[in-house]
Amino acid sequence: MEDNRYCVIMAGGVSSRFWPFCRADRPKQFLDLLGIGRSLLQSTYDRFASIVPKDHIFISTHEQYVNWVMEQLPDVPRERILAEEQRRNTAPCVAWAAYHIRSIDPNATMIVTPADHLVLQEELFRKAALKGMDFVDETPSLLTLGVKPTRAETEYGYIQVEGASKGTIQPVKTFTEKPNRELAQVFVDSGEFFWNSGIFIWKVQSIIAAIRTYLPEIYSRFETCVDSSGHIDDSLVHKQMSACPIISIDIGIMERATNVYVLCADFGWSDIGTWGSLYHLSQKDANENAVLCGRASCYDSRKNIITTSNNKKLVILDGLEDYIISDSENVLLICRKDEEQRIRQFVNETKNRFGNEYI
Amino acid sequence: MEDNRYCVIMAGGVSSRFWPFCRADRPKQFLDLLGIGRSLLQSTYDRFASIVPKDHIFISTHEQYVNWVMEQLPDVPRERILAEEQRRNTAPCVAWAAYHIRSIDPNATMIVTPADHLVLQEELFRKAALKGMDFVDETPSLLTLGVKPTRAETEYGYIQVEGASKGTIQPVKTFTEKPNRELAQVFVDSGEFFWNSGIFIWKVQSIIAAIRTYLPEIYSRFETCVDSSGHIDDSLVHKQMSACPIISIDIGIMERATNVYVLCADFGWSDIGTWGSLYHLSQKDANENAVLCGRASCYDSRKNIITTSNNKKLVILDGLEDYIISDSENVLLICRKDEEQRIRQFVNETKNRFGNEYI
Asked: Is-cis flag, bond preceding B20, omega within 30?
């Protein structure tokens, strides 16, 4: 492994779409969603431990989750956890990680990844990541991993590339966030579009240069935290971050910069962003019921997805088809699978009625 | 109130039909099923406290539930709780109570009632009970309170009387336990049939004489526990009871004795024996959902009955109609209302798969 390569796992998100299975104090990345014995964060860590040196892996998260991270990743010392006090979306988060790593190695190359995605073909992924890092080492660029779409998914972002073919690295032509069904189908049929995995590769110098150009407020705030040799004083960061604009790295940089490339890959990827995708990925019984956590006895019941907050909880179903049954400590949700987009509404109305007790 | 009148509340039953709302360690009589702020046992106690002197009320139960009784009825001292070590159905239970009360007052009249029934018209009930006690004081008889049927219920026992009319006391012609739908309808239409409420009135002398005649084994076992003056030594009872035949007072005595009468009454009675009857009796929201315990937000959902083991648990329903949703600590049941007769099967299969963990 190259000594100048670093990984940042972003593990600070809240996942209200999976409420109440995921709660504000226990978001998706810390759960073993697929029943494999490792949380999504742990699986992500394992994946990158074969790509960069283990002690080059940083975890970016919210301070609320530091204990989760330390418990799940005992190999990661506290100083490699970048804990934010407030949520400012991904651009300030990436900026901090880039400045922090640049302090350690001004020539560093970094790969940034969400903590809560699934990769089925780890070896293909590893090869793509290494290829991407080789590329940015030679070409001052901002690279994103694109995934060959397998369906007209409306929940993903799409990246258009000219003359796309798997394995190649191409300049990005356009970004389109969450197209409607018809447009998504056109994208897939055209062969020119890849899903935006949200996994980015760049040299710290390149991303800091892009922040300077496209997010000057964030740039100047972080510049107040570094000394003349470029070394960051992390103790100054919180105050500056709390004043940073709330903006994603996609909107703030990737959709605006001119040196953005995509590595067109195919490694069995999912962001596990919906109950539908989770159901799709989960093991199912003979009646196509997926029991993620807990025990279940299903009578005249098919195609349900069942989660509990406790492996010992027993769920008895009679006469249900195509439902989400998610039992948490103090919340039970029973919702038709094809209505899962309403869960955000349920969360909001619950918040309005009861405050944060159930969130 | 007459000094020789006593009440025995039978509070030892297990109610597997309401599983998992009711559990082996928390049966129906100890729950506030109707959300009135008093458990069924407490409501029953309140009802009889206006019929017999308070310190003449005895609670018959299983030793497993003694703490429940003492907690819910702090006025009842331990010595008025008759706690069985084993379940032998109602005949041995009634025998013990009769012998015990006879020791206190050989001339006693007793009224025996299940702890878990509902009476809506308390004053009519009180009048019926007093009338019944006056009757058995004059006529050596075994009296049951009959309830004018309002529907062709198949879960109740029916008592046929000749020339029945409300308010009268008549000899019983026949008993029929749980007729099928057609027969139940014939019974109701005939006007000759009343529901057997399971509430009995007799002098202790009369019931002990009947036990001697119809259940001689139980009689002779209890006779070994009394001294020459007829005083019972309760410490000897457990051993004898554990050898008694398991038999109900209905089958052992009422269906065989020749001096059985019924008081034909109508006081808004239910044994709350099914989820259907509980739903029927419960308060409902605008969409006819009944939330017995817990909080609920119902979207596109109608005619469900929801219980939790915790007033703070929140249940979110989307797209459910005519279901039972019963969440207990470690069991969640979701079952169509019209399939509730299968709950016994679910309980048995759960016991076979997991032992008593969930029962």
From this structure: yes
Nearest chain A residue to B314 by CA distance is A331
CA A180 to chain centre: 22
C-beta atoms of B330 and A310 within 8 A:
yes
**Residue A345 neighbours by CB under 8 Å, 6+ apart:** none
Show contacts of B66-70: CB within 8 Å, 24+ apart.
B68/B26, B68/B30, B68/B41, B69/B11, B69/B41
Alpha helical stretches, state H, B20-89: 40-48, 66-72
- Give the torsion sign (CA, B292, B294, B295, B296): negative
What is the DSSP track for A74-104?
A: TTS-GGGEEEESS---HHHHHHHHHHHHHHH
Model confidence pLDDT, tens digit, residues A244-292: 999 999 999 999 999 999 999 989 899 898 898 899 888 999 999 999 8
Q: Which two tokens stand for residue B46?
A: 């309140």
Q: What is the pLDDT of residue B345?
A: 93
Distance CA B198, CA B206 (A): 17
Residues of chain A with pLDDT under 50: none
Judged by CB atoms closer than 8 Å, whether chains meet at B336 and A318 is answered as yes
Q: Helices (H) and strands (E) in chain B — how many of each?
A: 11, 17
- The interface pTM score, or ipTM, of the predicted complex is 0.82
pTM, rounded to two decimals = 0.83
* A138 burial type by CB count under 10 A (0-12 exposed, 13-18 middle, 19+ buried): exposed
Query: What length is written for chain A?
Result: 359
Give the pLDDT of residue A164: 65
Q: Is the CB of A223 inside 8 Å of chain B's CB atoms?
A: no
Residues in chain B predicted with pLDDT less than 50, given as ranges, are none
Chain A CB contacts of B308 below 8 Å: 332
